[in-house]
Amino acid sequence: MSEVWLTQEAYEALQAELAEREGPMREEIVRLIELAREEGDLKENSGYHAAKDDQGKNEARIRQLQQLLESAQIGKPDAEHDEVAHGKVVTVRFVSLDMEETFLLASREEAAHASTEVYSPTSPLGEAIKGKRVGDSATYILPNGNSMDVEITAVSDYAG
Description:
42% of the residues lie in helices and 22% in strands. The protein is α/β, with parallel strands linked by helices and 160 residues long. It has two domains: 5-74, Helix Hairpins; 88-157, Chitinase A, domain 3 (Roll), CATH 3.10.50.30. A five-stranded mixed β-sheet has the order 5-4-3-7-6. Strands 1-2 form a two-stranded parallel ribbon.
């Protein structure tokens, strides 16, 4: 698993989600399974199968959250003021398109709390620009196999 950075706010929100899923949500799913069992024949009981499906999804999310919260780094990595890093707002110019885009370089867990577009540091663009500075160029591969050249035009701290 790659290094994941979270703000304190995102970390606390994920902890709250985990508590909800391990407590009230888990209890409600168990209650629904028991109610569906009381209806009889489980083979053709859609309520039972839906509740069991929800139970599997909830347990998978619980495991995912536990792993994420155990391994996440809280805060931001050390970086210079003009260096592209997790938690920075980056403006890039797509050279061949002559257009700019500004986004926060952060994990998808941060996206729910961000007030701007979020790109993952592990995306092709994120990987290509990490560690670069204003004025640097980078090339990354698009999903269709073509390459795209970008130039870093601005880097700033995320204000939230």
